Amino acid sequence: MYKDNGIDPEGLLSTIPSIAHVLLGFCVGRMMLDSNRAESREALLNSHLIKLFLVGAILTFASFLLSYGCPINKKIWSPTFVLTTCGLASSFLALLIWIIDVKGYKKWCTFFEAFGVNPLFMYVLGGVLSILFGSISFPWGDGSISIHGFLYKIVLMPIFGETGGSLAYALLFVAINWCIGYQLYKRKIYIKI
């Protein structure tokens, strides 16, 4: 499958760090579930948020120290890549919890809540729309063109160029998915398994 330089990113050597990635995420999630039992916002801030931020800082620092012997490499999921991503994600999660839950700045979160209340549905919707946009064609010029081809090649690429058009198409695709998710969110429709 990967014929570029002989590294299989889905082999045994990258499976072990990916398992560690999942387990670190589980530990962080468990720590945050324990924080729901905190009596007050001050207890949440003083205990679990500081722990979460420290875990993130320690993991990130350790990854940079170890990167001299084991480079940070996403393609092969090196152990230092796992430490870097888990560390940065933990620190960022601590920052978001502090901003949203402790300080109470929630108005800007509506965009993300539309995705978050129906995450599995939004994931499947993105895949289904991607397939549909690539499969559904209509007549154009001498032949036919897909919805994806029309939006990217005819509408966005002439305006933004090749690279900018690709980014604009990705943002447009996210916006289309968000519009559907927001309608479900606004009507309080939650799709669960």
TrEMBL record:
Say which species the protein is native to.
Answer: Bacteroides intestinalis
- Domain of life the protein comes from: Bacteria
| Keywords assigned by UniProt, alphabetized | Membrane, Transmembrane, Transmembrane helix
* The keyword Membrane belongs to this UniProt entry's keyword annotation: yes
Q: Where are the transmembrane segments?
A: 12-33, 48-68, 80-100, 120-138, 167-185
Q: Does the keyword Thylakoid apply?
A: no
**UniProt protein name:** DUF5009 domain-containing protein
